[in-house]
Amino acid sequence: MKFLRKENLETFVEKMNRDSDIFYPEHNTNGSYSWARYEKGKTLSITGHRTVLPLKYFFFPPAENLKEKTGKPAIIFGARGCDVRGLQLLKKIYLDDPEDIYFRKDTLVFSADCTSCHQNCFCTVLGDEPWAEDDFDLNFSFARDGFLISAGGKKGNEILKNNSDLFEEASDSQKMEMLNARSKTKEYLRKQNEDKKINLKVCAEKAGENLDVFEKYAQTCVSCGACTNVCPACFCFFLAEGKENKIRYSDSCQYPGYARVAGGANPRRKMTPRFKHRILCKFLYRPAMQEIKGCTGCGRCISGCQGKINFRDVLLDIQAGEKR
Length: 324
Fold this sequence. Notes:
- This protein has helices at 6-17, 81-93, 98-105, 154-162, 172-192, 200-207, 212-218, 226-230, 271-290, 300-304, 311-320, and strands spanning 2-5, 21-27, 33-37, 63-65, 74-79, 107-112, 138-143, 146-151, 167-169, 237-241, 246-250.
- By secondary structure, the protein is of the alpha/beta class.
- Helix 6 packs across helix 11 (311-320) and helix 7 (212-218) crosses helix 9 (271-290).
- The radius of gyration is 21 Å and the shape is globular.
């Protein structure tokens, strides 16, 4: 593990910015974070929590011309653990798409530990950590005087080697500071979710049953699709193809016409089966097919929901629900 002093961060960023566009989480006046393009002279800070929009939009934007892949290589600086875990699932889903694999090769992900949590974050409730554990190029953790940096693979190790003049070996005391900072963030999350005791195994088992809970929340849902559009792990899309262009658009299983087939039949015309499908997809289908759950606990679905549905409460109700 390497250590980068705070005063060397700007030098490192400027060197990386020579050949790549850098995007980082910019702190907004309302306390949220939004992705911003780094420009010389800006102060790049990677503290805080997850951004309003997920990391997946750099790879799979809401609308994309699949015949046009242009632009400089990019570095996503400050991606949070929940977004990196979402990207792990998307890679499994899109593995056979050569365009997407090529695009990922042109993009570096520099993740960073969360130092705070949004009021809707609940990653630890799902058994995850508020930092990335793998599938990053570099991960930045925090100590008093700088950053502890872990390489997640060949690309990360090459970056550390090529910039060795900026890094030093992390000391035991710096590693302890990192562990203390991580523990502090986990304690924030524990207190925030202390009444949310969720057993995912039980939820997955009960989600397949005909529970009243699905009907309860279906009455509140307005089928806007906000939950799936801001989810870092949702991946559905449809293609619109013309003579010269092929456009991929984000789709949502919560839209009324999502499951409609060519003959006009629609097995999920009503909201209740659509709401149930979303739960099954995340906690039953994805673990069975991709060996990874389809929820990262980022809480963006809670923030974006026009029906004021708290996904944590949905899971608690499923867990406590009875078969109808």
